[in-house]
Design brief:
Layout (H helix, E strand, L loop, with lengths): L11 H17 L18 E6 L5 H12 L3 E5 L13 H11 L2 E5 L3 H10 L4 E3 L7 H15 L6 E5 L4 H13 L2 E5 L8 H9 L4 E4 L2 H5 L4 E4 L11 H8 L6 H6 L5 E4 L11 H4 L6 H20 L1
Parallel strand pairs: 1-2, 1-3, 3-4, 5-6, 5-8, 6-7, 8-9
Bound molecules: phosphoric acid mono(formamide)ester and norvaline (NVA).
Length: 307
């Protein structure tokens, strides 16, 4: 039994196994119907319980489909409708009860520590479905997507333009574990978490942080961004939007990247802010494949957790 909480917790070898297994599983699916069960029905008789303390479209549906394709069942809990969310039951007690009913848990929450606390009291695996600190499932899907389109990500140049947020934190961890170069362009005051950067440095990662979006994008294989205002951001929105204005991914940015570079965004997007329509809808955009691959990579993550 293993938890999937941070990309930095998992060895390079295991992460590679998760990606490669996801790719093999995806290729093996010959039935086009979206919920056709895989031949090995790996989750037959098993239940995934999902708890969302923040909204979700992709994570909710892609986990549900992942479990269906593995032959299992998923149950989604709304924190407003369960005891722990409304304060009637402690987190440890809820964790112990859910361990009786489910085989695996997926939690999307605000404070990262909650996933760690939950994991202490569960005796089944937990998957992090996004916290204010990181979003490892999304970045695993992005690695799979990059490799599907462009081949091995090792030594490639990936550029992040915009807010130093949870998605970027998982991307920084992935740059160490998968061995790609990462350039980050962000405004002062919106840099990624210092501890995560220190961890990357300690693990010999080359990460460039600059204020200049064009220089960060130069000769890049992939330009990535995300919303400037994340769910639950308790900041001065007006001030943040102003600071991030020069960090929009548009034609000018894509032009300095490699000719065959791809554009990635975890979605949901605020079109016209962090990205222009012509880029997100353009030929270089990989955003819909990123969303699709969430299903495949999460099947592989579930399989890995239950081993
Ligand atoms: N990218 C992502 O996790 O999207 P949702 O918030 O819709 O789940
Ligand atoms: N940074 C975004 C990602 C959404 C998938 C947020 O946390 O809202």
């Amino acid at each position: 039994m293993r938890n999937f909480i941070n990309i930095s917790d998992i060895s390079k070898k295991e992460l590679r196994i998760i990606i490669d297994n996801a790719t093999v599983r995806k290729k093996k699916r010959t039935d086009n119907s979206k919920n056709a069960i895989d031949a090995d029905a790996l989750l037959d008789g098993k239940i995934l319980v999902m708890i969302f303390e923040k909204p979700s479209t992709r994570t909710r549906i892609s986990f549900d489909l992942a479990v269906k394709q593995l032959g299992g069942k998923s149950v989604t809990l709304n924190p407003d409708e369960i005891h722990y969310g409304s304060g009637n039951e402690s987190l440890p007690d809820t964790a112990k009860v859910l361990s009786q009913y489910a085989d695996i848990i997926m939690l999307r929450t605000h404070v990262h520590k909650k996933v760690l606390d939950f994991s202490k009291y569960l005796n089944i695996p937990i998957i992090n479905g996004l916290t204010d600190l990181n979003h490892p499932c999304q970045i695993m899907s992005d690695i799979m997507t990059f490799e599907e389109l462009k081949g091995p990500i090792k030594n490639k140049k990936i550029t992040w333009i915009g807010d130093g947020n949870n998605i970027l934190h998982s991307l920084i961890e992935a740059s160490v574990q998968f061995g790609f170069d990462l350039s980050i362009a962000c405004p002062k005051g919106y840099e990624p978490d210092k501890k995560i950067l220190q961890w990357a440095k300690k693990n010999k990662s080359e990460i460039l942080i600059t204020r200049d979006a064009l220089s960060a994008a130069k000769d890049s294989d992939c330009i990535m961004t995300d919303k400037w205002i994340s769910m639950g951001d308790k900041i001065n929105k007006k001030k943040k939007l102003k600071a991030l204005k020069p960090y929009q991914v548009n034609k000018k940015i894509m032009k300095v990247a490699k000719k065959e570079a791809i554009f990635m965004h975890c979605l949901p997007a605020s079109r016209g802010d962090e990205v222009t329509d012509d880029v997100i809808d353009g030929k270089q955009s990989a955003v819909w494949l990123e969303a699709l691959n969430r299903i495949h990579v999460q099947k592989s993550i579930i399989e890995w957790c239950l081993k």
